Amino acid sequence: MKIRPLPGLILLLAIFITPACKFKSSSRNNEVGKTLSTEFNLDDLQRRTFNYFWDLADPESGLIPDRWPTESFCSIAAMGFGLTSYIVGIENGYISRKIAAERIRDQMRFLYHLPQSNAMHAVAGYKGFFYHFIDMKNGTRYKDVELSTVDTGWLMAGILSCQSYFDGDDLTETAIRDLADSLYRRVEWDWFLNDNDLLSMGWFPDRGFLKAQWDGYNEAMLLIIMALGSTTHPVPAICWENWTKPYIWGDYYGYEMVNFGPLFGHQYSHMYVDFRGIYDRYMAAKGIDYFENARRATYSNRAYCIANPRHFNDYSDTIWGLTACDGPGDKKVDINGSVIKFMGYSARGAAVNYHVDDGTIAPTAAGGSIPFAPEICIPALKAMYEKYGSALYDTYGFRDAFNPTFTFGPENINGWFDKDYIGIDQGPIVIMIENYKTGLIWKVMKKNKYIIAGLKKAGFSGQWLDNP
Question: Is the peptide bond before 363 cis (omega within 30 degrees of 0)?
Fold first, then answer.
């Protein structure tokens, strides 16, 4: 099975600019899927999406698959999102606190006791970090994937959310807090620093550190914050200033902001930190916070899709959303005299410095941005639900992606619809719906001493951070 690269690495390795091309609307049957029997509602979507993480965890290891129904390895980032989703499940009455706590304790215990060393194989990680993908049964490195900083970061974000949420005195909840502390504190963040005082994206036991580094605005904001907040292996405060130096501020489709093409880069850190009303030095100078920046990015992504410069099928004010997701596959097709390169998994997006678009839309783009702009995101999800029906929406909510322009082959006569759900795209939907409804995960993380310390060390101040 083809290994999905880190989203951040995709941005460095898979950027290309394609010329504008015009497509004629195909004569597709409007009934692309069975009409669903109930009206769209967020509660049903959230419950189904939560079930991905609860139902599909391996019964022995507790590890969560990268995707389903295609057989796959465990994504440690999806594991982190899953741990947080269990908190959402408790608060919504999907599962009991006791049963969830017991599962989380066992999952953390399994992770903590996995072997760690610089060996090539039969280990899960090194120096507290974990490999990007690990075997679903035994938790060891999948093939030759990298030791991943950002994916370890998302695992740790999930672990810290459980540490702050489970505050009871019983043995299970005490064990969760202790295991969470042990897992986070053993991560040697400073080991990953390069000569620029920035974190490398990855490491291989036979090749060393990747030259690619985490700087500029992207999905790794929370990674840097957690590294700053460590009490055992912290990175220096200068790392945040170095992180912000390459920011690209500019106007895109009428919205001034720090630019980043795929919407996941504007969503992931916001799943865990309420950036409303808190500012670092860079954003204070711009007069907006990161939450407002993400709101503008959401609107800009939609505005690009409405303009639809490449004239793909179905793009509109309600059918939109470019982010990292599956695609119909690597295939070049001549359409009306223009050669179009369709892609498999790729970080799709649009910004002043980034254009990757092959007509593929991912529901998680709108679903993970609901708190920023519910007035456009909820109608988008509703429109996708009503227009595509069961071809797109099924057991675990929205399938990962669809491409109405890809109508090649008898199975795609009505467009291409993914058969899989992907864990790292499911996570933003279930967590951000909850943040929109109740602010639950934001409230939980406001109690975490490591997150607070990291934000303050990065120079953030304002509102809730100054007055906890």
Answer: no
Question: Token pair of 145, please?
Answer: 């994937």
- In the three-class reduction of DSSP (H, G, I as helix; E, B as strand; rest coil), residue 257 is classed as strand
Please report the pLDDT score of residue 111 as a whole number: 98
Establish if 44 belongs to a structural domain: yes
User: What letter does residue 255 receive in the DSSP assignment?
Assistant: E
Does residue 399 or residue 467 have the better pLDDT? Answer: 399
228: closest CA among 289, 184, 262, 196? 184
User: What are the backbone dihedrals phi and psi of residue 208, each rounded to the nearest 5 degrees, phi first?
Assistant: 85, -155
Question: What is the mean pLDDT of the segment spanning 113-132?
Answer: 98
Q: Is 6 within the bounds of a domain?
A: no
Amino acid at 175: A
- Other C-beta atoms lying within 10 Å of the C-beta of residue 337: 7
Tell me the mean pLDDT in the region 415-423. Answer: 98
In a domain, 432, yes or no: yes
The model's pLDDT over 234-264, given as tens digits with 9 standing for 90+, comes to 999 999 999 999 999 999 999 999 999 999 9
Distance linking the first and last C-alpha atoms of the chain: 47
Coil vs helix vs strand at 231: coil
Residue 48 inside a domain? The answer is: yes
Residue 22 has which token pair? 């015009």
Q: Mean pLDDT for the chain?
A: 94
Amino acid identity, position 276: R
Q: How far apart are alpha carbons 149 and 31 in whole angstroms?
A: 44
CA distance 226 to 130: 15
Asked if 234 contacts 227 with a C-beta cutoff of 8 angstroms, the reply is yes
Query: What confidence tier does 31 reach under pLDDT thresholds 50, 70, 90?
Result: low
Residue 150, domain extent: 16-246+261-466
d(CA 4, CA 209): 19
Pairing of strands 208-209, 202-204: antiparallel
Structure tokens at 450: 């490591």
CB count within 10 Å of CB 363 equals 27
Q: What is the CATH number of the domain that holds 86?
A: 1.50.10.140
Helices (H), 144-270: 149-165, 171-185, 221-229, 238-244, 264-267
Task: For 309-327, give the DSSP string.
Answer: TT--TT-SSSS----EE--
Number of domains present in the structure of the chain: 1
Q: Would you call 358 helix, strand, or coil by DSSP?
A: coil
Looking at 79-185, which runs of residues are DSSP E strands?
125-126, 129-130, 133-134, 147-148
Q: Do the beta carbons of residue 159 and residue 180 sit within 8 Å?
A: yes
Task: Return d(Cα 7, Cα 16) in angstroms, integer.
Answer: 15
Tokens of 262: 């795929």
Contact 61, 138 (CB under 8 A): yes
pLDDT at residue 10 is higher than 50: no
